[in-house]
Amino acid sequence: MSTARRRGLAAGGTVVAAALANVATGMLTQNWTAAWWAFTGVVVLVGGALQAWLTIATGSESSRTQQVDRTTVGGNVRQRLDGPGEQTVSGSQISGDLNQEQNG
């Protein structure tokens, strides 16, 4: 799953959790001002925490690498990397095609 998709799911989940907090607070207290503050608090705190966690979990862009180094291949080589990062082929002999694909 790509980084953008993970971030989108985290954002969507945060909005759902905040909406549930809003409705629960409003129904239990009948104080809709407090319910909207609860919604805002959940969006800011949970959303911020999830986005920070995703940033730390995926690492820096330069840390994501795919390397083919000093390899002899009798056919085709295909590299696919979802998200940011670096793909390299060096010192290799490839008799077929080299296909590098990067999404994100």
Question: What can you tell me about this protein's structure?
Answer:
The protein is an alpha/beta fold. The chain has 2 domains: 3-58, no CATH class; 62-103, no CATH class. It contains 2 helices and 6 strands; from the N terminus they run ααββββββ. It has helices at residues 3-29, 32-58; strands at 65-69, 72-73, 77-82, 86-90, 93-94, 98-103. The radius of gyration is 22 Å and the shape is rod-shaped. The chain starts with a helix and ends with a strand. The model has no long low-confidence stretch (mean pLDDT 86).
In short, what is this structure?
Helix content is 52%, strand content 25%.
Pick out its properties.
104 residues; alpha/beta; 2 domains; two-stranded parallel ribbon; 6 strands
What's the helix and strand layout?
Blueprint: H1 3-29, H2 32-58, E1 65-69, E2 72-73, E3 77-82, E4 86-90, E5 93-94, E6 98-103
Parallel strand pairs: 1-4, 2-5, 3-6
Helix pairs in contact: 1-2
Biased composition (Polar residues): 64-74, 87-104
Transmembrane segments: 35-56
Keywords: Membrane, Transmembrane, Transmembrane helix
SSE-based structural type: alpha/beta
DSSP summary, beta strand count: 6
Mean pLDDT: 86
Order of strands across the widest beta sheet?
1-4
Biggest β-sheet description: 2 strands, parallel
Specify Rg, calculated over alpha carbons. 22 Å
| Tally of separate domains | 2
What is the helix fraction of residues, given as a range?
Answer: 40-55%
Question: What does the overall shape look like?
Answer: rod-shaped
Percentage of residues in strands: 25-35%
Keywords: Membrane, Transmembrane, Transmembrane helix
Transmembrane segments: 35-56
Biased composition (Polar residues): 64-74, 87-104
Region (Disordered): 64-104
